[in-house]
């Protein structure tokens, strides 16, 4: 049985990471590969699609499987840098379980639907013994698909009658999702939305061993639809294990971390008009991350 979760220590550590500079991040050692990493489930979609409510019901469904963390990203103000953090407010009903930890994160300087220093925070969840982490992004569109590299299973949440949104997303995140969910399925137009998604999926190219993303209907008033989503996530996790995709995911995560460290440090240097931004720890970690990009595939 795992040790009790030290919520205070985890909260403080997450806050330190959220506020850490690129140089401070670079002074942290990269995590060692481990077969006991938390399963990562990403929930993304357009603003107003009902992601937070869906995450809440999904968390309750999956909570019996072990220690579960929810990281929910809210948009930060481009002026003040503050965030409303409404996801935490909407998920307060889930509070009270010793096995569940919920944290809202402001997106801060990012513009890709995620939060500053998110890769390091996800690694920290592994270190605290979480079995599963659900990551909810800011509402995203065509170009904001960085979440793909940070999670094992990506769920795209859509609303009925959001055909224009689907058209806008087709060239981006629509091609990367592992599971499509038409949320608020009790509203008119839900079945028509499923038909539109199937039409788009029908023209996609699939190799014999590739994963074919299921298209599901979901509603907070239909518990069986949440169970079906949870089962689809399990099926995708089993497919990942059978096809040995873990190493490819590790390379993708290293690539994202490398790019973010460089972007953040260069941004700081430009803001301070400081040309001396190649500190030794940063260069060393960038070199390590470059090395991970060229590791042999399993």
SSE topology sketch:
Elements: H1 7-19, H2 22-26, E1 39-45, H3 51-62, E2 68-74, H4 86-90, E3 100-106, H5 118-127, E4 132-136, H6 147-150, E5 153-158, H7 163-169, E6 179-182, H8 190-202, E7 215-217, H9 223-243, H10 246-272, H11 280-293
Give a written overview of the molecule:
By secondary structure, the protein is an alpha/beta fold. 44% of the residues lie in helices and 13% in strands. It is built from eleven helices and seven strands. It has helices spanning 7-19, 22-26, 51-62, 86-90, 118-127, 147-150, 163-169, 190-202, 223-243, 246-272, 280-293; strands at 39-45, 68-74, 100-106, 132-136, 153-158, 179-182, 215-217.
Query: Quick check: average pLDDT?
Result: 77
Give the H and E element order: HHEHEHEHEHEHEHEHHH
Q: Helix/strand-derived class?
A: alpha/beta
Q: Uncertain runs with pLDDT below 50, 5 residues or more?
A: 77-87
Strands of the biggest beta sheet: in what spatial order? 3-2-4-1-5-6-7
N- to C-terminal separation?
31 Å
Instruction: Specify the biggest β-sheet.
Output: 7 strands, parallel
Number of helices: 11
The helix content is 40-55%
Rounded to an integer in angstroms, the radius of gyration calculated over CA atoms is 19 Å
- What percent strand? 5-15%
What is the count of β-strands?
7
Which descriptor suits the 3D outline? globular
